[in-house]
Write a structure and sequence with these properties.
Layout: H1 2-13, H2 16-36, H3 43-46, E1 54-56, E2 63-65, H4 66-71, H5 117-127, E3 131-134, E4 137-147, E5 150-154, H6 166-192, H7 198-205, E6 212-217, E7 225-235, E8 247-256, H8 265-280, E9 285-291, H9 295-303, E10 307-308, E11 316-324, E12 329-336, E13 340-346, H10 349-355
Parallel strand pairs: 8-9
Antiparallel strand pairs: 1-2, 3-4, 4-5, 4-6, 6-7, 7-8, 9-13, 10-13, 11-12
Helix pairs in contact: 5-8, 6-7
Length: 369
């Protein structure tokens, strides 16, 4: 019997008429509370009805209790909110009658930080000899430039197509792998900021627009490559404001094949070819990046007259412990080298005084993990 009564009662409650009556009763109960500005959904506001403190609602003027006023987001002592200023549109009040009939066909291009290779190519051809004597043999020069369309090989007769330059770039990448492959594999992630193989990153870097490559090989063959250099003219934001012009000849690569190392080719290329090319290009100086563990290259650049740049990463002290005995007091310091240094050579003594770092390049301790 109880189950039957309960089922009948539930059917009556779920009927449309019952639901309509319940909604009407709820609406009638909400109207006075909404007029008074009291949030009927907040149970804490209901407890404030018995409070003898009554204040006037700032918008409706209906007296409400102070507790309900706080619960609804306004203070009894708060003044009536001021009206917002009229909205002012950022658009002009009146649009032009008609748009221009024809837009420019091409927008002006953004200035590139790297100078085009065509401006540096005449100076490179003038200061790099076509034939480099090396004992009883002689090395022949080959020049490749990189522009927006890719590499171009420049021979004494004419400029050939892109396909003729690709073997030279491939031989240059193999020479980089032979000299510094292990170093690039260790610092590739920090240097390039990705997880790609270092050869893929280096291959993309070697195709930077504006680069000029100078190759020296036997019989002008890529398979007999002896040495190569790559450089471009670019802006240097770390130069002092009084340095004019704010451009440098950035030496990307200088590599000598292992069978030709120790013959003074690197020093000859820097002093007789690279530095005169920088002077002819009217830049502030020559800048390059060298790995801190490449001791032969560090000695070469210092012998050529290059110094550590003021904006170059410096050695840092990772630990310092002082020990005191009866006879002496001394300190032990462990220096850690950065992954690379920045070296600079100024075309004038004034530029050297502005950009050369003051700290000497000291011999650091072995790298600690």
């Amino acid at each position: 019997m109880r189950r039957q009564v309960r089922a009948a009662w539930m059917r009556a409650c779920m009927s449309p008429a019952c639901r309509a009556a319940r909604a009407l009763r709820a609406l009638r109960a909400c109207l006075p509370r909404a007029a008074a500005g009291v949030c009927f959904a907040d149970r804490r506001a209901r407890a404030c009805r018995s409070s003898p403190v009554r204040v006037q609602h700032p918008h409706t003027g209906v007296p409400v209790c102070a507790g309900a006023a706080k619960e609804n987001g306004f203070s009894p002592c708060r003044e009536r909110p001021r009206r917002l200023p009229p909205f002012r549109s950022a658009f002009p009040a009146q649009l032009p009658a008609q748009l221009p009939a024809q837009l420019p066909a091409q927008l002006p291009a953004c200035p590139m930080p790297n100078a085009p290779a065509s401006t540096l190519l005449p100076h490179a051809l003038a200061h790099f000899p076509p034939e480099l004597p090396l004992g009883s043999d002689s090395l022949l020069r080959t020049v490749v430039t990189i522009d927006q369309h890719g590499p171009t090989l420049h021979s004494p007769a004419h400029a050939t197509h892109r396909a003729d330059a690709e073997p030279w770039l491939a031989s240059a990448l193999d020479l980089v792998a032979a000299n510094l492959g292990s170093t690039y594999a260790r610092v590739s992630r920090q240097l390039y900021g990705n997880n790609r193989a270092w050869r893929a990153n280096k291959r993309d870097e070697m195709r930077t627009p504006g680069l000029v490559y100078v190759f020296y090989s036997q019989m002008a063959s890529p398979s007999a490559l002896a040495l190569f250099l790559s450089f471009l003219v670019t802006d240097e934001p770390d130069l002092a404001p009084e340095t004019v012009p704010p451009q440098v000849l950035y030496l990307y690569e200088i590599h000598v094949a292992p069978r030709h190392q120790g013959r003074g080719l690197g020093l000859r290329m820097l002093s007789q070819c690279v530095f005169p090319t920088a002077r002819a290009s009217r830049v502030a100086g020559v800048e390059l990046t060298v790995f801190s563990n490449n001791q032969p290259a560090l000695r070469l650049y210092q012998r050529a007259g290059m110094r550590l740049a003021a904006w170059s990463p410096q050695d840092r002290v990772v630990s310092a412990q002082r020990r005191r005995t009866r006879a002496m007091q001394y300190a032990q310091e462990a220096r850690v080298r950065p992954d690379y240094y920045l070296f600079f050579w100024g075309c004038s003594p004034d530029t050297d005084r502005v950009v050369i770092g003051t700290g000497p390049l000291t011999r650091a301790e072995p790298r600690q993990a």
